[in-house]
Specification:
This protein has 190 residues and is α+β, with helices and mostly antiparallel strands. The chain is 44% helix and 14% strand. A five-stranded mixed beta sheet has the order 1-2-5-4-3, with helices on both faces.
C-alpha cells in the first residue's frame, strides 16, 4: 500500500545508523553512502522507506554476499532505473543498478556506479529538493495525491510520478549549473 506520511525527524538518524553499518561492513568496496529520496529532504512528506545509494567503481559480487549478512536481499528483477523521456541516447550502462531491500526495516538500497547518469540523478534530485522549498512542496503534493488516488497500484503511481519528476529535474539541471553543483563523495556518517 502506498501511504505518504508527514516527514519524520528520525529518518536522518535511521539513515546514519544504516550508513554506519554499511560503511563498516563494505569498507573499501564502496566509494560512498548517501541518503537519497524523499526521506532525505527535511520537511518533505514521503513513504516510510529509507532510500540509500551506495556508490561503487565496479559491481563486485562480494557486495551481494556482504549485504546479505546485514539482512539485505537483492531483487534480481530490478536492474535498471527508468529512462527519462528524450534520453534515448543514454547507454544502458548509465541506468544499470543493483537493488536491495531490507526485511526488518523498509529500506531501498540502490547500488550505482560513480559517474553514471543514474548515480548523479539521485544525488542532484535530493540536493535540488533540499535547496528549493517550492519545488519540494509541489513534488510532495503530486506524491500525496498519487497515493490518495492509487493506494494499491504501485505501477500507476510510478508511471505518473517518474515523468513528473523528470520535468522537475529540468529545473534541477539549471540550478546545478548556476550553483556549480557537484555530488558529495560521502554523506556525513560518524
Amino acid at each position: 500500500m502506498i501511504q505518504i506520511i508527514p516527514h519524520k525527524a528520525t529518518w536522518r538518524q535511521e539513515f546514519e545508523q544504516l550508513g554506519r553499518e554499511l560503511t563498516a561492513t563494505l569498507g573499501n568496496l564502496i566509494e560512498g553512502v548517501h541518503h537519497i529520496g524523499s526521506t532525505s529532504v527535511p520537511g518533505l512528506a514521503a513513504k516510510d522507506v529509507i532510500d540509500i545509494q551506495i556508490s561503487v567503481n565496479d559491481f563486485e559480487l562480494v557486495l551481494v554476499e556482504q549485504l546479505s549478512t546485514l539482512g539485505y536481499r537483492q531483487l534480481e528483477h530490478i536492474k535498471s532505473d527508468h529512462r527519462p523521456p528524450g534520453m534515448e541516447h543514454l547507454p544502458e550502462a548509465d541506468l544499470y543498478k543493483w537493488f536491495f531491500q531490507k526485511d526488518d526495516r523498509a529500506v531501498n538500497l540502490h547500488v550505482r556506479k560513480v559517474g553514471t547518469f543514474n548515480h548523479r540523478y539521485a544525488l542532484l534530485c535530493r540536493d535540488y529538493l533540499r535547496s528549493n522549498t517550492a519545488a519540494a512542496k509541489a513534488y510532495e503534493a503530486v506524491k500525496v495525491n498519487l497515493g490518495r488516488y492509487f493506494p494499491q497500484d504501485m505501477t500507476a503511481y510510478y508511471h505518473i510520478k517518474d515523468p513528473v519528476f523528470d520535468v522537475l529535474m529540468a529545473g534541477a539541471e539549471i540550478w546545478a549549473a548556476g550553483e556549480n553543483w557537484q555530488p558529495e563523495k560521502l554523506d556525513i556518517i560518524s
